[in-house]
Design brief:
The structure is a single chain. It is built from twelve helices and eleven strands. With 374 residues, the protein is an alpha+beta fold. The protein has a four-stranded antiparallel beta sheet, sandwiched between helices. A three-stranded antiparallel beta sheet has the order 9-10-11. A hairpin with a 5-residue loop joins strand 10 and strand 11. Helix 1 packs across helix 3, helix 4 runs antiparallel to helix 9 and helix 6 runs antiparallel to helix 7.
């Protein structure tokens, strides 16, 4: 007998009391709201409305969605709008995908300092790309890009990293020419990016520490001592920070579709859940350390909920608002891609000047309710 596919809401509905008994005192208001919204989504608890076919009289009760951005059942239309808007901004040039990852000793600070750590992540990665691309020995151009923050890994562990979608070229210093990358397979040297990113991040983290804006408690309490903090930064400065820059497999459209799955949802979707039995959740995850092999993981339901809700606590209004999407003031240059079509850019490639966005919205189609006789 084939068992029905489990949903994330099933975990929220069957184990909320056990979870709250151990973690309620540590939850933020956003986390409590997400817990309640996902549990009640599309149930009688949120109310609903009745639809009736005007031909056969068939009735269907439709319960209201919670519209919480952390709910796997919601935000599909918002995600589609985001994707459509981003696709209109793509240029007909080669693109690259960049990833900036925080090492584990530094990334764990985000559990207690989400806003300052993620703000620093954006403010370190952004000038790293802009300054490196502006170097006349490398590209010598002013670039723009989109950055999206991921705070978790496939196994729901904390794993802060920044995905960037970058066109393979930029505007010349005089604003009159498009400077393309010499090779479609190479954008900027990874080692230069990695070390510049590391230096900028540690400098800003040290400034935040000296200003007293970092909260250090529990396992991080010993690092509140200046000598211990300085030692941590010295150790972090000796290791290579992971930065990847490579042409995206499948083109920029595929990367945007991948990122769109995270701009309005977090952590895990329903299709990855395998079972919920005897207080344990089994789900699929992709092990990128072993060539993306699909594996299964079993977690206690309470631990599963704890990991799922970790990214929900990000403060609104910070650089990481909505968890994964960074505001343009942190990741863009002072100009918009629309400026590429201005009369002053007369020496840009003709395909760039004449690029016209194409709508991807399908035409709505009306169909019978499915219960009409005949």
């Amino acid at each position: 007998m084939k068992h029905p596919r489990r949903e994330l809401a099933d975990v929220f509905r069957t184990h909320p009391d056990d979870f709250l008994a151990g973690w309620n005192h540590l939850l933020s208001g956003q986390q409590r709201r997400a817990l309640k919204d996902i549990r009640d989504c599309r149930t009688a608890a949120r109310g609903g409305h009745l639809q009736q076919c005007d031909r056969c009289g068939h009735r269907v009760i439709l319960y209201h969605s919670c519209r919480n951005r952390h709910c796997p059942q919601c935000q599909a239309s918002a995600r589609a709008r985001w994707l459509a808007q981003r696709q209109t901004e793509l240029l007909p040039v080669p693109y690259f995908q960049g990833v900036f990852t925080l090492p584990q000793p530094i990334g764990r600070w985000a559990l207690q300092n989400a806003q300052p750590v993620y703000n620093i992540l954006f403010r370190a990665a952004s000038p790293t790309l802009l300054e490196t691309a502006a170097d006349p020995r490398l590209l010598g151009a002013s670039i723009g890009f989109l950055a999206v923050l991921h705070t978790w890994g496939q196994n729901l562990h904390l794993h802060p990293h920044l995905h960037c979608v970058v066109p393979g070229g930029g505007i010349s210093p005089d604003g009159l020419r498009w400077i393309a990358c010499p090779k479609s397979s190479f954008f900027l040297p990874v080692r230069v990016l990695s070390r510049r990113f590391r230096k900028k991040f540690l400098r800003q983290l040290t400034q935040a520490f000296r200003k007293g804006t970092l909260g250090l408690s529990g396992e991080l309490r010993p690092l509140a001592e200046p000598a211990a903090f300085r030692g941590l930064c010295e150790q972090a400065a000796q290791i290579e920070w992971v930065v990847h820059v490579k042409p995206p497999f499948g083109g920029p459209q595929r990367v945007l579709k991948y990122l769109a799955r995270y701009t309005h949802r977090v952590a895990i979707s329903n299709h990855r859940l395998r079972s919920l039995e005897n207080g344990h959740v089994i789900f699929e995850w992709k092990d990128y350390a072993h060539r993306g092999r699909i594996k299964t993981m079993t977690l206690d339901a309470v631990e599963f909920l704890r990991r799922f809700l970790l990214p929900v606590c990000l403060p609104e209004g910070s650089a990481s608002a909505s968890t994964v999407f960074s505001p343009l003031e942190f990741v863009s240059t002072s100009w918009r891609w629309a400026a590429l079509c201005s009369p002053s850019c007369t020496r840009l490639p003709q395909q760039v000047l004449t690029a016209v966005p194409v709508s991807i919205h399908p035409t709505p189609r009306l169909v019978p309710c499915g219960n009409e006789a005949g």
